Backbone:
């Protein structure tokens, strides 16, 4: 069934493209598609987060190994659409101002729950690095006494998130939930993810890790908050929503927003902060989804989001296709060779990210790739980095070909000679 | 994902009627002498560590200070040879907002990792455990310099210093062995024109000033309610204020060469330098009280003013129209 839905829509899309080639592609139509895809991606993120919320509720109500496994599966599924939204982040202020609530990383997880002794204690940077809210109903934070006897979404959002002005104090979002489901990955560069036992949520004497009721309350509060935050962002992209209105307000600025999102995510964020830096540090914790060992997917779907925004087609979590006039069409009308270059480079990147993903799924996980002296891992990760950097050059060319305003991409000092990209 | 991100400066060139700086003078009179000094001081540092690796050894600490000074003297020239093979990252990993350096060093020491035994092996170690900032922990932090395993600590110090010497020698070799010529005789794949060479130096200058204002000064400043003196650069060896001064001196020299001794620009540097010297606060601890913070803030604004002169005056004179800046983000 799903296959058929997809095939039918794909035919419709092809016809649509053919018809369009005869007319000029309008920027307004491209922006419409961009906003429609955003609406679909955030709604998919919301739908899958609601499934995660239901699985978390079931785990807390009736803890079992199966219930924990179900919640982990739901988390992994929820990441698929969400990561594809990240291309909307840079360039749309409304998204960027908000995204830290749901996807902040890296985190000092000792703020939330117990950690292994090897994690260390409070640091120069973060006095709350081992606060352990789950074990402490009351504590002192930035000199003030905090009553956390009841763990609520408000406590997470208003008191703990970025506590003491430290960004590593991540109390909410996907990665806080990930930590509460998987626990720390203590395997270093070895195989295996975090291995939290379901008994961390067990009631009575079966409880391990202490304070199982508070841990359950924390997990539920974080899942509830994720759903409400994603609900907010979904609404922003509906007809009449602020994010959509902002994109549609000025055609050139809207196109700049698309390209800024593509370029900044490709370059400074993904190639630099998330991939190259981790490699230079050889640190297994420098992987984006470090508790679950899901980093290969995190990178893959980030890349896919960039590609599908350019091509103007997104496959929803129910298998249906959202598509329309695209940036690719707009570029092709101006400079067909440049569109071919852009499309080709996006495909090359997806091939490289796909290699990381397949290797990881076959047992060579991302933290193993980061290990000191691991030449195969380095080549895989650098393949992705190089593809992302190379596609940024073409994005830059698209900016000048379309004659839209000057643009600055997020850079990164963990990239080789960042300026060269724009020369 | 939030640390290390900085905004890129994009520059569009429109060379018509532009005043072109003398690239040969910049390379032979600025870049090469400073990188030579770095390579020499780094060699001396490695030799000092071979002679006596005790962290408290004054000769070792002096050599460390001299080599680190030389690094700050080139740290604005981050392109080309310094970026090949992660060299500059391995010389200077800072800021370290996640405490990767003490963590990585602690792991090497805890494991008695034999990777320190060969230079080739040590080159594969995390950048967080290499270079001047890692060495500062080993020489000055009581957590490391008084550890219960002086033998391994000694090997580690010798490995770090030898790695610094090898890295700085390799950078110099690349500059002398061809990269300098790419800049002095443009019309190659790296630099297509004199304008691109000028752009490279201009961007280096502007980025270095931004780093000093926003990171060297901005990080310890934190917010008014929550200053962060512990985040000051190289505070363990008391070098925070010194780095601000040295970096201003080095960028002033480059600015003079790029601008054909522009007096307005030079006066702006002079003001900033006098202020930086007057702070009389080696580790910038003053950020913690309102008076001291104000002084650091005024210095920061003075440096921002230099950047403004660059973008509104020098840039256009060199034929660049500076567009942009940072889209918010992290």
Residues:
């Amino acid at each position: 069934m799903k296959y058929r839905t997809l095939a039918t829509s794909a035919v419709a899309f092809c016809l649509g493209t053919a018809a369009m080639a005869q007319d000029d592609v309008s920027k307004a139509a491209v922006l419409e598609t961009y906003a429609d895809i955003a609406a679909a991606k955030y709604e998919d993120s919301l739908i899958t987060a609601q499934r995660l919320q239901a699985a978390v509720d079931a785990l807390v109500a009736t803890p079992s190994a199966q219930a924990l496994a179900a919640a982990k599966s739901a988390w992994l599924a929820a990441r698929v659409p969400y990561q594809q939204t990240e291309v909307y982040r840079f360039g749309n202020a409304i998204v960027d101002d908000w995204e830290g609530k749901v996807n902040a990383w890296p985190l000092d997880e000792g703020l939330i729950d117990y950690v292994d002794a090897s994690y260390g204690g409070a640091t120069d940077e973060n006095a709350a690095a081992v606060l352990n809210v789950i074990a402490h109903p009351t504590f002192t934070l930035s000199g003030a006494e905090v009553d956390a006897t009841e763990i609520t979404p408000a406590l997470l959002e208003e008191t703990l998130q970025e506590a003491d002005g430290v960004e590593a104090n991540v109390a909410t979002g996907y990665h806080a939930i990930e930590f509460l489901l998987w626990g720390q990955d203590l395997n270093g560069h070895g195989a295996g993810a975090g291995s939290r036992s379901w008994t961390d949520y067990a009631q009575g004497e079966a409880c391990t890790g202490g304070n199982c009721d508070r841990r359950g309350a924390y997990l539920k509060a974080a899942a509830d908050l994720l759903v409400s935050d994603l609900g907010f962002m979904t609404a922003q992209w509906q007809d009449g929503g602020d994010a959509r209105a902002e994109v549609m307000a000025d055609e050139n600025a809207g196109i700049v927003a698309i390209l800024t999102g593509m370029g900044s995510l490709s370059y400074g964020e993904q190639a630099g902060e998330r991939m190259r830096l981790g490699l230079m540090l050889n640190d297994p914790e420098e992987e984006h989804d470090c508790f679950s060992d899901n980093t290969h997917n995190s990178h893959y779907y980030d890349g896919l989001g960039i590609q599908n925004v350019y091509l103007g087609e997104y496959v929803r979590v129910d298998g249906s296709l959202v598509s329309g006039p695209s940036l690719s069409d707009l570029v092709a009308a101006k400079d067909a060779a440049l569109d071919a270059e852009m499309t080709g480079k996006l495909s090359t990147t997806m091939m490289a990210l796909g290699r990381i993903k397949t290797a990881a799924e076959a047992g060579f996980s991302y933290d193993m790739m980061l290990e000191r002296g691991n030449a195969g891992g380095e080549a895989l990760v650098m393949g992705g980095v190089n593809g992302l950097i190379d596609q940024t050059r073409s994005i830059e060319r698209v900016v000048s070909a379309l004659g839209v305003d000057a643009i600055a991409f997020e850079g990164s000092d963990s990239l080789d000679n960042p300026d060269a990209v724009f020369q | 994902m939030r640390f290390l991100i900085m905004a890129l400066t994009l520059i569009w060139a429109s060379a018509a009627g532009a005043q072109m700086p003398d690239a040969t003078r910049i390379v032979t009179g600025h870049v090469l002498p400073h990188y030579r000094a770095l390579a020499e001081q780094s060699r001396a540092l490695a030799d000092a560590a071979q002679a006596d690796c005790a962290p408290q050894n004054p000769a070792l600490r002096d050599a460390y200070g001299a080599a680190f000074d030389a690094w700050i003297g080139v740290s604005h020239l981050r392109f080309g040879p310094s970026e090949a093979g992660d060299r500059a990252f391995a010389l200077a990993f800072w800021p370290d907002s996640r405490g990767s350096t003490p963590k990585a060093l602690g792991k090497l020491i805890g494991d008695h990792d034999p990777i320190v035994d060969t230079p080739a092996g040590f080159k594969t170690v995390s950048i967080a455990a290499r270079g001047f900032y890692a060495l500062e922990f080993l020489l000055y932090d009581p957590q490391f310099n008084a550890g219960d395993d002086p033998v391994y600590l000694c090997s580690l110090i010798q490995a770090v210093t030898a790695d610094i010497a090898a890295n700085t020698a390799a950078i110099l070799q690349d500059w002398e062995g061809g990269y300098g010529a790419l800049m002095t005789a443009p019309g190659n794949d790296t630099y297509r024109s004199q304008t691109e060479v000028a752009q490279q130096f201009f961007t280096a200058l502007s980025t270095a000033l931004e780093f000093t204002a926003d990171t060297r000064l901005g990080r310890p400043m934190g917010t008014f309610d929550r200053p962060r003196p512990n985040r000051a650069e190289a505070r363990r060896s008391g070098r925070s204020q010194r780095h601000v001064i040295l970096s201003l001196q080095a960028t002033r020299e480059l600015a003079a060469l790029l601008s054909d001794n522009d007096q307005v620009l030079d006066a702006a540097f002079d003001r900033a330098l006098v202020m930086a010297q007057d702070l009389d606060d080696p580790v910038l601890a003053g950020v913690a009280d309102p008076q001291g913070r104000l002084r650091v803030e005024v210095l920061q604004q003075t440096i921002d003013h230099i950047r403004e002169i660059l973008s509104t005056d020098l840039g256009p004179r060199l034929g660049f129209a500076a567009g942009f800046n940072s889209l918010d983000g992290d």
Summary: Chain B touches chain A through 49 residues (CB under 8 Å). The first strand of chain B starts at residue 11 and ends at 13. The radius of gyration of chain B is 20 Å.
